[in-house]
Specification:
The chain has 308 residues and is an alpha/beta fold. The protein is built from nine helices and 14 strands. Helix 3 packs parallel to helix 4. Bound molecules: 1,4,5,6-tetrahydronicotinamide adenine dinucleotide. The site of 1,4,5,6-tetrahydronicotinamide adenine dinucleotide has 36 residues, from helix 1 and helix 3.
Amino acid sequence: MARKKISLIGAGMIGGSLAQLAAMKELGDVVLVDIAEGVPQGKSLDLLAARPVDGYDVNITGSNDYEATRNSDVIIVTAGLPRKPGMSRDDLVSTNTGIMKSIAEKVREFSPNAFVIVITNPLDAMVYVMQKVTGFPKNRVVGMAGVLDSARFRTFVAMELGISVEDITAMVLGGHGDDMVPIVRYCTVAGVPVSKFLSAEKIAAIVKRTQMAGGEVVNLLKTSAWVSPAAAAIEMAECFLKDKKRVLPCAALLEGEYGINGYYIGVPVVLGAGGVERIIELELTDEERGMLQASFARVKELVGLVKL
Ligand code: TXD
């Protein structure tokens, strides 16, 4: 059986990490595409030479031409401008909308049956642009943010408790912004509510740090994080390629769920060979519902800036 094909549109910091992870996990042949001459080609050459060391056999190619992406099974989009200190995710809207539109047209032309994972910020608006411009069914276009935000939440809880990250589960809903909604009630340590381990004050501090974690990295690194976003997107791609039917927080197109219609926002979904196979509607408290609506209001404002 021919290997699957994973095309990465944007061969920058996250793109390079995506390529390395996809290759090491032998998820399929990897294609890197970028507008920067030489970058996808050079990164692919570098990645190819790592294969003998760690023993994995997939083809890795780099190109400035979308022909190389033809008939991809999975497309992961990071093309765009990352944040710089002092920049908000909103500042990126107009620039990255233009980039997203041009890419969406190529995706539709070269890989009409692909499962598309968007990473580019502002995420909730960019994944919306991707779905609208490709015209793909909503189950085949998804945004990566909640898996990263939940991983950050799990990381801070694990660090606080000195417990394995594997035993911390968490669910972060809403937009990929400072008003994201970590659902504390559903955060558990080996199935036991986190409130049995940490005080309300400590949990609140961890929630705040999770919401600001992207900016914390940007202020230190002077650009966005790239290792953890790549890991999160590859987990999503793996669910599709292996039909794992995992329940993960992803930016999905809601059509009435959670009282939201016609927008992408982070909710728990079942990810499998059908892409976003199901949206899971959690029972939320009035406070949680209010936080989700506040986060949605910001997403709606962002999408309002998009000119298709
Ligand atoms: O959780 C999340 N979704 C966020 C997303 C987490 C972290 C970073 N987030 C966003 O991902 C970030 O704000 C950016 O919008 C993207 C990509 O971040 P990255 O750090 O990878 O940015 P780079 O290193 O600048 O890479 C972007 C590449 C760069 O090589 C450009 O030349 C290329 O995108 N680029 C293009 N490639 C193809 N086609 C077009 N039109 C294009 N324009 C730029």
